[in-house]
Design brief:
The chain is α/β, with parallel strands linked by helices. The chain is built from 9 helices and 13 strands. A hairpin with a 3-residue loop joins strand 2 and strand 3. Helix 2 (90-101) crosses helix 8. This is Amino acid ABC transporter substrate-binding protein.
Length: 293
């Protein structure tokens, strides 16, 4: 009887020890699980912090002290490549003065005109500043107030017998791709249906070479640019009195970017008030043709 009692007691002790061992293992497993969970949470927090830091870096890069202006480098006198190989022009000089007053570094970014929206959306440029017509695009950008008025006109050779729109019947006309002149003509099918052809070209330098060579009879374009081209080329061209469309120039920013737009606008108004805008205009056009105030 005593032997059996001892056996039972020993068995009970072994079972107890086994249970204790299992409990220890379970505790270790739970502890490891807790550690893993804590590590995972910590990792998530670190990842979130890293993402937040990256976001802050991305945001900071948008205000890295550079003011990047998108422009067509074949659009004198607003923006083009000068004889010295450097970018120059009325708009670029105005932009450089704005950047200086805002303590930003000016950066000129030549763009294909038909890719301007893609450049702006991608953030490779801060604005489009290049004799940019506001009319018909009012809802597409955050606009500055207009700083210059302009007309769309026809340019022909001086020895041409074309003296009015009516004389363009059967003639070949060129216009820059995706320009406001092209848009205005597309809206005037009554006129364009009389043309022999209406051909879009990449830039106005090409159009003027075609006009000089006799490859085309007329160019539809900005009056401001036409007057400069005629003077600088010292060529025998003339501008018809007919106005295709009246318009205004503005600076286009990406939708939602009102902060930068407002800073640039305020600076332009300062430049108008102290005479700087008029001085730059007189340099390029012989008179002040700005309409900032």
């Amino acid at each position: 009887m005593k032997k059996r009692a001892v056996s039972v007691m020993l068995t009970a002790a072994m079972v107890s020890a086994m249970l204790a061992g299992c409990g220890s293992k379970n505790a270790e497993t739970q502890s490891a699980a807790d550690t893993t969970a804590e590590s995972a949470v910590s990792g998530d927090e670190t990842s979130a912090d890293t993402q937040a830091a990256d976001a802050e870096t991305t945001d900071a890069s948008k205000t890295d002290g550079t003011f990047t202006v998108g422009f067509d480098q074949d659009f004198p006198p607003m923006g083009f490549v000068g004889d010295d190989g450097e970018f120059t022009g009325f708009d670029l000089e105005m932009a450089a003065e704005v950047a200086k007053r805002l303590n930003l570094t000016i950066a000129y970014q030549p763009i294909a005109w038909d890719a301007k929206d893609m450049e702006l959306d991608a953030g490779t440029i801060d604005c489009i500043w290049n004799g940019f017509t506001m009319n018909g695009r009012e809802d597409d950008y955050e606009w500055s107030k207009p700083y210059m008025k302009n007309n769309q006109v026809f340019v022909v050779r001086g020895d041409s017998d074309i003296n009015s729109e009516a004389d363009l019947a059967g003639k070949n006309v060129e216009v820059q791709t995706d320009s406001s002149a092209e848009a205005a003509l597309n809206d005037n099918s009554e006129l364009t249906s009389t043309f022999g052809s209406l051909t879009p070209v990449a830039d106005y330098n090409t159009a003027f070479m075609d006009l000089e060579s006799g490859a085309v009879d007329a160019i539809a374009m900005d009056d401001v640019v036409a007057s400069y081209q005629i003077t600088s080329r010292k060529a025998d061209f003339k501008v018809l009195d007919d106005v295709i469309a009246a318009e205004e120039y503005g600076i286009g920013f990406k939708k939602g970017n009102t902060g930068l737009r407002d800073k640039v606008q305020a600076t332009l108004e300062e430049m108008a008030a102290d005479g700087t805008a008029a001085k730059i205009s007189e340099k390029w056009f012989g008179k002040d043709i700005t309409t900032i105030q």
